[in-house]
Design brief:
Length: 217
């Protein structure tokens, strides 16, 4: 009779960190889609540290984001943002929420592709508008027509956000539901129940990597 301990039942929460290794999970997407809120909860579920790139940029600069924009301008902010994200990815695995413009920089996209699995939290313009109206600390939206600005930014950014490994629809449902969908999509992307083994029968990268959670679910 063997006294071997039976293996623990597989659970996505346990499979995902072991399949990630040193790679991180990076949440990308427009302002107001819930990257920090979802990221924080996702990190708790996966028992990984959570880091917010905007908070880290503010700490590194000793200033708030509106102050950085006002005193030094957007290009300076973007350079700092790229440096901070590079440093945070080197310290993985973490769950990292990025600012809405971070993924627009090619160098940052390449780093994220090399060192992380990216999730685009995608929301409709009206959901974004409703959410960003609640806070006045986003310098890019301090314009006479914030709605027009959101529409323009979305049209510039969505084709780039689309390059994320996974896409999850962020909408007005309980946060835990979105977190659950992130976990399911990550688990599938990383190869399912035997996530620590190489994925099998994934005909093309796109099949595995472009999981879009249905808004109807
Ligand atoms: C920005 C989004 C902000 C912040 C900065 C610029 C953007 O982060 O990085 O105000 O370019 O979309 P959130 O997406 O967390 O609001």
């Amino acid at each position: 009779m063997s006294d071997a301990v039976p293996p623990a039942p597989a659970s996505p929460e346990a499979d995902i960190p072991s399949a990630l290794g040193q790679r991180s999970i990076v949440l990308i997407g427009m302002m107001g889609v819930g990257k920090s809120t979802i990221g924080r909860r996702l990190a708790v579920r996966l028992r990984l540290p959570f880091v917010d790139a905007d908070t880290e940029i503010e700490a590194a600069a000793g200033m708030t984001i509106p102050e950085i924009f006002e005193r030094h301008g957007e290009p300076h902010f973007r350079d700092g943002e790229a440096r901070v994200i590079a440093r945070l990815l080197d310290g993985g695995p973490v769950v990292l929420a990025t600012g809405g413009g971070a993924f627009m920089r090619e160098e940052t996209r390449a780093r994220i592709a090399a060192k992380a699995i990216s999730i685009w939290l995608k929301a409709d313009p009206d959901v974004i508008m409703r959410r960003v109206r609640r806070r006045a600390d986003r310098p890019l939206l301090q314009t006479p027509d914030p709605e027009g600005t959101v529409t323009r930014l979305l049209s510039e950014r969505e084709p780039v956000y689309r390059n994320a490994d996974l896409t999850i629809s962020s909408r007005d449902v309980p946060h835990d539901r979105i977190v659950e969908e992130c976990i399911e999509a990550l688990h599938r992307h990383l190869g399912g129940p035997a996530a620590s083994e190489p994925p099998q029968n994934l005909g093309s990268k796109d099949l595995a990597s472009k999981d879009v959670a249905s808004a109807a679910r």
